[in-house]
Amino acid sequence: MALNLSIIHQRVESIREGYPEALGPGDVNRLRTRAFTVLVASTVLDVPLQEAFEYLTDGGQDGGIDAIAVGSVRDAEFVVTLIQTKYKQRSDGESAFPASEIPKLRMTVGALFDPGATLELRPELMPRIEEIRSLVRDGYIPSVRIVLANNGKRWGADADQLIASANFPEDQVRWEHVNHDALVAMLRPHALVNDELRLQGDAVVESFDFCRVLVGKVGVTELARLFGTHGDRLLERNVRRYLGLRNNRVNKAIAATLRNRDERDRFYFYNNGVTVTCSKFRHNALQAGNHLVKLEQLQVINGGQTCHTIQRALADLADEDFSRTFVLIRVYELDDDQRDLVHRITYATNSQNPVDLRDLRANDEIQRNLELGLADLGYVYARKRGAGTNGHTITPAQTAEAVLAIWRRKPHLARSGPEALFGQYYSEVFDESLTPRQVVLAVEILRRVRARLRTSDQGLPRFAPYAAHFIAMLIGDSVGDLGIEELEAPFEPLLARAIVQTRMVLLVLGVSEDKASLQRLSATFRRGALLEQLPSTLEEIRAMAASHARKVEEMEVLNHRMQDHLKKHDEGWSSSKADLASFGSQVEELEQMFKRFDTREEKALDLLAEFAALDG
């Protein structure tokens, strides 16, 4: 549709004009393509635009990948999303995604997830590749989602043949096409669902002070129909994103039971059931059973995973009999002003499952308070996903990551993923002492560090891509009561100082920033060794520098004595045997000094001088 093409073009232009620093250098066409990639990543991954910028990888030697996103580990598996985009400046929507791009992507995917394979990409990309490969080495199984996006049509049959001939396992590698129509559909807010469910057998209806409740059983075919009709519109209030049939342990078990003819009739007893909220439900209470229940503003708040898996499994088993396969269903009739209750029910019924805890926490009191506090500082706190973002938007995920790294001084844990940040570390991050100003300052520090490390054309240390959270923490240590608006001027010297401090810690730990493998550098920053070493680092660096200075001084004294001896010899003084023996011992002593000479101590002296200059 021409309208959808126009909508996406407007979004692209808005990103291009609104985020010039984040997009980096380039001509107009290149910046538009990069902005389109950001839009695709933000929409497909359901993350704010600011976060989507961090996934950009486009440039020379990128293996055909314009963006990479690595998901959190769940059930010993993790999802990697690879995005390639093609954006035509004046598109009529008729051009297909080019099949010529498939071979390069096939080669990249084939090598990326094999730690032993050689992958020739530009150096700036290797830290992200190493992040993926380190998870593979640790035994985690990757599920690969390849998103090919354009403002045109899907690829043709020739590309399908190239994809099929790659022989990637279908349960591990999924290819998707996204275009302007699909993006608009994902961006468009959906209307609430009104529908009906046919229950089987008896049902129990109870009235409480705050709501009416119905408990019964529903056939799996009825749930498959419901989700086939409405899809993810049913999950607008839900906390679960479908994880894929073969990419999650629970989904596998659900699908296996449905496929087993001897077991499917026991599905009701194996599954936890589905929980639904609605603004009103109606049924014929005079009827003995098998009620037809009409639901208004229907939302599934628990069991979306079950429903999606049922829908797909039954589609694959269209000729099978599921007439005796049922699911427990709970229906809560709640008014709009009972949203807090919806939140508490959602959290209680989902907190033991692999849900996205960011959504569960969105209505917590501290999240609402931060929303108010950040508004006073001129920022939008997007505590709910889909709330819209701009240059002054901060999300709870950004907050949790930055605060844990900087103010809670746990940079090695800050990349733990949303399950950990909004699970085991949530109360530590979002405690009563957290202020809106601290949130803004932490997020701004981490943003600027990442942007500087990503876009710098100056030579940065090899460890820089892994050190963003550690460096941000060190800058946070230095800013003190600095105002948010005052951060700009001293940022560069603070960053330089933090990089020198990081080099000091690595030096004391014996990790060579020049010779250590990327794998070791990555692992060093994932662990807490740097944090443990930091308090005593400066003292140890001074000791190493002092040791080096003493050795240099001793060498200079000995060298002067030897020079004097040679000078006397040149002036015609005769040397006795004792003099010759003394000179020989001095040479031996000098050789021993050279052997004791430690390049690490010399480097410590240089770093100490650099640190003193920055500190002064």
Gist?
By secondary structure, the protein is of the alpha/beta class. The protein has 25 helices and 12 strands. It folds into 4 domains: 2-187, Restriction Endonuclease (3-Layer(aba) Sandwich); 193-355, no CATH class; 365-524, no CATH class; 528-615.
How are the secondary structure elements laid out?
Elements (H helix, E strand, L loop, with lengths): L1 H17 L1 H4 L4 H18 L3 H5 L13 E4 L6 E10 L15 H11 L13 H12 L3 E10 L6 H9 L7 E6 L1 H8 L5 E15 L4 E8 H11 L18 H11 L7 H4 L3 E5 L1 E3 L9 E11 L1 H13 L9 E8 L5 H12 L6 H4 L4 H12 L3 E2 L11 E2 L1 H11 L11 H4 L4 H4 L6 H20 L12 H12 L11 H19 L8 H9 L2 H42 L6 H20 L2 H17 L1
Parallel strand pairs: 2-3, 3-4, 7-10, 11-12
Antiparallel strand pairs: 1-2, 5-6, 5-9, 6-10, 7-9, 8-9
Describe this structure in words.
It contains 25 helices and twelve strands. By secondary structure, the protein is of the alpha/beta class. It folds into four domains: 2-187, Restriction Endonuclease; 193-355, no CATH class; 365-524, no CATH class; 528-615. It has a five-stranded mixed β-barrel with strand order 5-6-10-7-9. Strand 5 and strand 6 form a beta hairpin. The model is unreliable at 237-247 (pLDDT under 50).
